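Dear U.,

For the methods section draft, I wanted the exact inputs and outputs in one place so we can describe them consistently. I've listed the two proteins in the order they'll appear in the manuscript figures. Please don't edit the token lines directly; just add comments below if something needs changing.

First protein:
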Amino acid sequence: MDRRMRRTRTQLLRALISLLETKPLNDITVTELTRIADINRATFYAHYKDVYELFDELKTECCIMLRELIVRHAEEIQHGDTAGITREIFEYFDDNEQMFTLLTYNGDTTLYGDIIITLQNALAETVLPVKCGEHFSNRRTVNRDDHQEMMLFVYQFDFIVGGLVSLLQRWFTNGRKESVETMAALADNYVQRIGPEAFERSMSLIEADGAKVVARTV
């Protein structure tokens, strides 16, 4: 995206946020939006088909930013240090309180689900391969099913992400009464509880379940 396109998009997004403070999304017209953004209608339609598509861009921007946070902290997460990423996620929501409030109260029901998918995909691409590689290279036994272990890593990451986003959503919808520092510390504490020991216990459960299946088929 060139500089002119970025400037146009930024102006339109700012104008949309300004209008959403005073009226619901379905009452906003392209005419008033382009007037506030100081952009003509033809330019608007060159980028978006309607106001709703521009509204979706706000959510997209949020997901892109959260993905960038994961990428930036990937090496720390690979080494079990999640304090930095949890703090930055809560800071991002706190700093962009206006945008998230407008998204939430204008009929968007998929925001937090999209955030979960974004974080899951980012972790799967940047952290999961490293964690799996370390595990398989350092393990002492060789009688486990690699596919099962891979899936267990995925389950564990998905559980962590789902819990983190749910905690974030609850904090935000309750008015952010606790400080960013407190919530980040709480989140990091919960994440740290789901480490290697939890993985080993979970693997034992998987193996026990597999043994039962084999016993039933014999």
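Second protein (the one for the lower panel):
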Amino acid sequence: MTPELREKLLAGLKDGSIVPYLGPGVLADVKNAASGAPIPADSDSLIYAMNDGKPMAPKLMYEFPRAAMNIELKRGRSTVTKFLTRVYGDTAWTRGAVHDWLKDICPHYVIDINRDTQLQDSYADIPHNLIVGIARIGGTDFRYKLYFWNGQSYQKTEVINPAIPVLFKPMGTPKPEAVYIASDADYVDFITELMGGFSIPPAVKELRKGKQYLLMGMRLNRDTERMVMADMIYAAAQPAGWIFIAEPTDKEKRFCKKVGLEIIQADVFEFIGAAVPA
């Protein structure tokens, strides 16, 4: 990465023309505050954590949503919800370097496909909008909930205030309510409505027009995350943005070329000037 590109990315993040899109890799340095164990964030680590540290059948190890669907069918959807809340809502974790860095920059619009609360904690000092993805819930045509953080607590709302930061957590969060997109059935419902335009608030559809994106901590070798991402960045500028992948696969190279993402063969921790987690 050239110094010129680095300055361009930093300037765009600060002025809002470039939107951070956070994947599990941004949590690579986050540890359990008591035990020092790494936070389960990527697909494999989540499956192991959900299955008491043991692997599941090879066909279930392919992707967390598939494994979560298996658990849901055997023990109920609430089992998966309780697991994710125990991990992300009830466990104390160390702060991640990427989230501390983002707190200083304070981008106006951030997309975070992780289910932890570190992004929300980064904005705890200022009022902000929170959008949380939902699935398989009756009584509404939409696949999101809206909240307003007043500096003290979250309140449900029906509108987005575009003058203050917008945090989009499409895969859910334990705070203020434990709501997650986790199993295959959740993703099918959410992505179907995402393609139909019902998983993104109208104000965000306007906000995102012509934006570019910086994907951090992401890999694009799984169809589920690629489908979510492609629809989340709809109406992007061309080129659509950049992604940090130190060692991209041929599949990732082809997909990035197709959607207009330039691959930066570096690690996000190098970009922010932090030590790369072992």
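Candidate sentences for the figure legend, describing the second protein: The chain is about 40% helix and 15% strand. The chain has a mean pLDDT of 95.

Thanks,
Y.
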